From TrEMBL:
Residues 3-133 form the Aminopeptidase P N-terminal domain. It comes from Marinomonas hwangdonensis. Keywords: Hydrolase, Manganese, Metal-binding, Metalloprotease, Protease. This is Xaa-Pro aminopeptidase. One of its GO terms (molecular function) is metalloaminopeptidase activity.
Length: 435
């Protein structure tokens, strides 16, 4: 499953059509980064660079100009380096395999940039990339200094982020197919974790089951650091230490998703270590589940993005009042944000090449309307701090989140992460069957 070269070309053409006349886009993918002496982290391309080129190697630059022509700047072929570090496509591969109209090696970056930018009006790049900002400013200054030799420097800098974000926000069929495969790999990984959990295991031993299924299924790595949080660790929203013993009677919250072809999936499930929810665990879990269903109803074309969150917050707050964790009028508790002691995050985010994918959530101050082809997560939760003495002791230290990945379609929301138990009786039956 692979995105075709023509698709990348079509994206570059669409990008140039949406920019002013006489623009050049400059992108870079980033460098290998050191973990410790002589050891590097595995390279992962920059998402927008990858979206527009499909080129996987580090240290590369892209110049996009004209109607979408690509000049790809790559590391050179180097038999000695490749002996140690592995294959490089080089300039020939950049043209034949990635559809670049032109390719050059990294040493030629400045001269390629000068010739692309000379006479260009708009220089378009990602403003949040400090290194690129320095580079493009240097190129502009160098061109301006050559004015008497006839060079014409760009006069406008333009941020690429909002433009490429809008493109990436609406997924094409090839992207959706990859994302559903990534989602289904993650479903299998979560099922494997539910099957294999036993009290007494270390959290990271359960994490090993996730990574095993990811890799065995063709996803080389997770889309983000796996969260395997037992007991009150689940109340730490981005708990990645995963180094404590799973106790009998704990709930376990796993937030983990495979990355496939650079596309993320993102699933959270919360289940009992011993296979049976306690009464307070089940009561709180049901509130989160009700919030999930209430939010899901709002994931339709033309509905404001924030409607899902608002529906989830209302259901959660109502549930907290019913169970006696909050007291008072539901409207007031929502307005005064009293629910935030138990629910301090949003009910989702865009999903794509980045797990927290790009794309604005508001347009001119108003929550944007959902459109076909958008992919987002829905992830209500409740977290009762173990130190919260304002609630009955039986609730303390319980953390719950339920998260799925959803494609917005005209005929209604489509759950890409379908097939993973989330109703209480379904989880208990699934876990019992594996014991
Ligand atoms: Mn998420």
């Amino acid at each position: 499953m692979k995105i075709e070269t023509q698709t990348y070309q079509a994206r570059r053409e669409r990008l140039m059509q949406s920019l002013p006349e006489n623009s050049v886009v400059v992108l870079r993918t980033g460098e290998l980064s050191t973990r410790n002496n002589d050891c590097e982290y595995e390279f992962r391309p920059h998402s927008s660079f990858f979206y527009l080129t499909g080129f996987p190697e580090p240290s590369a630059y892209a110049l996009i100009h004209g109607q979408g022509e690509l000049t790809l700047i790559t590391l050179p072929k180097d038999p000695e380096k490749e002996q140690w570090e592995g294959f490089r496509f080089g300039t020939e591969g950049a043209v034949t395999r990635f559809g670049a109209q032109k390719a050059a090696v990294l040493d030629e970056l400045d001269s390629e940039a000068f010739s692309a930018l000379d006479g260009t009006t708009h220089l378009v790049y990602l403003f949040n990339d400090a290194m690129l900002r320095e580079k493009v400013a240097g190129w502009r200054d160098a061109l301006a200094a050559r004015a008497r030799m006839g060079a014409v420097a760009p006069t406008r800098f333009m941020d690429l982020a909002p433009i490429v974000s809008e493109m990436r926000l609406r997924k094409d069929p090839e992207e959706i197919a990859i994302m559903e495969t990534a989602a289904q790999i993650s479903v299998e990984a979560h099922k494997q974790a539910m099957r294999s959990v036993r009290p007494g295991m270390m959290e990271y031993q359960l994490e090993a089951e996730l990574n095993y299924v990811f890799m065995k299924s063709g996803a080389r790595q997770p889309a983000y650091n796996n969260i395997v949080a037992s007991g009150s660790n689940a109340c730490v929203l981005h708990y990645i230490q995963n180094n404590e013993v799973i106790a009998d009677g704990d709930l376990i919250l796993i937030d983990a998703g495979a990355e496939l072809g650079c596309y993320a999936s993102d699933i959270t499930r919360t289940f009992p270590a011993n296979g049976r929810f306690s009464e307070p665990q089940a009561a709180l879990y049901q509130v989160v589940l009700d919030a999930y269903h209430a939010g899901m109803k709002e994931l339709t074309v033309g509905t404001p993005y924030e409607a899902c969150h608002n529906a989830a917050v209302r259901t959660l707050t109502q549930g907290l009042v019913t169970l006696g964790l909050l007291h008072g009028d539901v409207d007031f508790l929502i307005e005064s944000k009293a629910y935030r002691d138990f629910y301090m995050h949003n009910t989702g985010h865009w999903l794509g090449l980045d797990v927290h994918d790009c794309g604005s959530y508001k347009i001119a101050g108003e929550s944007r309307l959902l459109e076909e082809g958008m992919v987002l997560t829905i992830e209500p939760g409740l977290y009762v701090s173990k130190d919260n003495t304002k609630v009955d002791a039986k609730w303390r230290g319980i953390g719950i989140r339920i998260e799925d990945d959803v494609l917005i379609r005209a005929e209604g929301p489509y759950v890409l992460t379908h097939g993973l138990p989330k109703e209480i009786q379904d989880i208990e039956a699934f876990m019992l069957a594996s014991r």
